[in-house]
Amino acid sequence: MSKERVHRFVSKDLTLRIAAVNATEVVRHMQNLQNTYPLATVAVGRSMVGALLMAAQLKDDQMVGLLFRGNGPLGSIYAEASYNGHVRGYTANPQYQPANYDNGLSLKEAIGIGLLSVARHQPFQKQPFQGTVELVSGEIGQDIAHYLHQSHQIRSLVSLGVYLDTYGKVQSAGGVLIEVMPGVDEALVEKIQKNYDDKKPNISKMLLDGASAEDLIKPFLDGIAYEELEHDHPVEYFCPCTKDRVMRALELLSNEDLEDMIEKQEPVHVTCQVCGRPYDVSIPEVKALKEKLYKSSLH
Ligand SMILES: [Zn+2]
Predict the structure, then answer these.
(1) pLDDT on residue 123
(2) For the chain, where are the E strands, in sequence order?
(3) Are 226 and 277 part of one and the same domain?
(4) Which site in 64, 80, 94, 294 is 20 to 30 Å from 158, CA atoms measured?
C-alpha cells in the first residue's frame, strides 16, 4: 500500500486554502501502541488529524503541537505534527471508560471545560509561538477552528473523523481543513456553508467507503474551482524520543527504587509511552544516575 500524505489545495482565486488527509494508518498505529479505549482513541485520533492538517500549511521543518487540557476524566490530550508528515499523539488516560456510552463517542464531557494551547515550532528558534484559547466544544474540530479565528483571524471549516468498529478498533480516520483568507468573496464562503449543510459530508464514512483525500474535499467545494499544490511528504508516526529523555523520566524515581534496581542486577527495560520504543538501561547507568541524583541533592 502506498504511503498516505496530506494533500493541499488552493482555490483558483487563491482565497481558500484546503488540506485533506487519510490518516487511518497512523491513528491505528497510535491505538495499537497505547491500547487506547474508544473515547481516548477518538480524542487523540482527531487531534492527530487536526495537527497534520494544520502543519501542512506551515513551511518546511516547522511543527505544530496541540495540547487540550480539560477538567474531564480524559484529562489532557496532545498531538504534534510536522510539515514533513511526522505525527504523534498521546493522552494521559488512554484506558478511560465512561460509566455508559449513552452519549456515544461525544468527547464534550470526557474532555470537559478547559484550554487548547497551540505551539508552533520553527527550526533554530528557541521560543515557539504559542496561543491559548478556551475550549468551545471539546469535540476537537470546532476548538481548532476557534483557535484559528481567535489567534490568526482565519475563518475555517474543520471536519475531522475517526471511525471505530464495534470492538473499538480504528477503521478509518481523516479530515479536511478549509481556511478562508482575507479578501475572500463572501459568496464563496456562503457556497461552502451551503455545500456543508446540504451534503453533510461524513469524513470517516467516506474513507470507509474508499474515498481518497481528493474525494474528501469534493462535497465541500462543489461549484468552486481549485487546484492541488505540491506537498509530497508521506504521513508517518514518528516520535523524537531519545535515551536521554527516557533517563530523565527515571530521575523521578526515588533513591529506594533505584537501589532496588541495582540490587536485582537486571537491566531495566523502559518503554516510551508515546511510541512504544523500548530502551534498555544497564546497571552501571542506573548507578550513575543514582550518584548524579545524590550529588545534586547535596546542593
Ligand atoms: Zn517515543
Answers:
(1) 67
(2) 7-11, 16-22, 63-70, 76-82, 86-91, 114-121, 129-134, 155-164, 170-180, 226-229, 236-237, 268-271, 278-281
(3) no
(4) 94
